[in-house]
Amino acid sequence: MVNSTPDISTPVFDPFCYSVELPHERVYYPFGFRLQLIANSLDVLQVFEESWGGFPLLFDDKSLEIRMVVSDDQQAPSASGLIWRAQRHLLTLQSDRHNFAICDLEKGFSFGWLVPATARNHTFLRRYYLDSMVYLMLWQTHLTSLHAGCVARNGRAVLLCGESGAGKSCLSYACARRGWELITEESSGLLRGSEDRIVLGKPAQMHFRDTAAAILPELKDRLIPTNAPGEISIEVRTADLPGIRTAFLSRVAAVVLLNRGAGGPARLVPVAASQACERLERELPLFEQPVYEAHRATLRHLVQVGAHELRYGELDEAVLLLESLV
Predict the structure, then answer these.
(1) Buried/exposed code over 174-191 (b: 16+ C-beta within 10 A; e: otherwise)
(2) What is the mean pLDDT of residues 298-313?
(3) What's the whole-number mean pLDDT along residues 75-94?
(4) Across the chain, where does the E strand assignment appear?
(5) Which one, of 264, 249, 274, 281, lies nearest residue 321 by Cα?
(6) CA–CA distance from 13 to each of 16, 19, 132, 177, 263 (Å)?
């Protein structure tokens, strides 16, 4: 009888590093979906905990999986920047030959390889790798991404849409300090197929440019640039901001397109649904069909709730107008 069990005492040819040990396993629920994280780095676990540790299980669906390996190359510098490329269901994220990740969008599986300096750079690790891998897998299967802040009042959410620099973070914070719930301040996830227009966010962190201190003086001591590679904004934990209430999801009551610095008193101008949808689609990432069409259908359904352009200069005036929508 032939013994099929390999002799583990014999050296094994392992050019793909399958044998690397990944002793840490945790289950998280980003945006309410089950995900298993497997890694060999406590830095990775800490960053994931900070991002997604408080989320409850909201949706009963197949589990996602992320495996993250941190090498022992202590001499390599931290990554700075990221390039995304994709064909069909495979997508790569790459900073350089030492720092990269691959996502299988159909299977909901991602694998990454980083150097220790990148893993220690928690802000970069979160925004450019770990959160990106979560977003990419869920955009494929369940969510439509929207470059928008989101705040809610009385269970009714307002999406604050605009390009970089439109004031999403500052206006989201201004609403939150007046008692609104903060859902997110820059990236909203719309639940595809939801008749109720459910929006999900990640309220654990907010991101501001250093110029925000002139608009929000109370944040002056918190907006200290870290000079992290690739970063143009400053991360602040909402748990460190007194009086800020957060929530993971809400129902959308209005879509607001931001136009900061329009001059004159703040005002809301109605926008046709077709025009609002066209503006939102400009920042919709291109996916394969039929996923891309599913994203577009989600946006068309979203704007039927009503869209406005908010022309404003002063935050307090803008917040008062937003309260009239909910």
Answers:
(1) bbbbbebbbbbbbbbbbb
(2) 95
(3) 95
(4) 24-28, 35-39, 64-70, 83-87, 90-96, 99-104, 109-114, 143-146, 148-153, 156-161, 181-184, 188-191, 198-200, 205-208, 234-237, 245-246, 249-260, 267-271, 307-312
(5) 264
(6) 9, 10, 33, 59, 68
Q: Are 55 and 28 in contact (CB under 8 A)?
A: yes
Asked if the model's pLDDT at residue 159 lies above 90, the reply is yes
Query: C-alpha distances in angstroms, 152 versus 78, 146, 300?
Result: 38, 16, 21
Tokens, residue 9 = 């005492």
Residue 302 per-residue DSSP state: H
**Cα(90)–Cα(106) distance, rounded to whole angstroms?**
8
Dihedral class, residue 167 (left if φ above 0, else alpha if ψ from -120 to 50, else beta): left
Cα 217 to Cα 9, 186, 199, 205, 222, distances in angstroms: 64, 21, 30, 19, 10
Q: Is the pLDDT of residue 10 over 80?
A: no
How many CB atoms are closer than 10 A to CB 309?
21
- Using alpha carbons, select from 55, 52, 22, 56 the residue that is nearest to residue 39: 22
d(CA 32, CA 248): 9
Residues 82, 230 contacting (CB under 8 angstroms)? yes
Domains of the chain: 24-141 (no CATH), 145-323 (3.40.50)
The Cα 158–Cα 98 span in angstroms is 41
> What would you report as the CA-atom Rg of the chain, rounded to the nearest whole angstrom?
21
On the question of pLDDT at 2 being above 50, the answer is no
* 156 three-state secondary structure: strand
Q: Mean pLDDT across the chain, nearest whole number?
A: 89
Q: Rounded to the nearest 5 degrees, what angle is found at the Cα of 102, between the Cα atoms of 146 and 120? A: 85
Percentage helix, strand, coil for the chain under 3-state DSSP, each rounded to 5? 30, 30, 40
Distance from C-alpha of 21 to C-alpha of 23, rounded to nearest angstrom: 6
Token pair in block for residue 178: 């007046």
Q: Write down the H helix ranges in 121-222.
A: 122-124, 131-141, 168-176
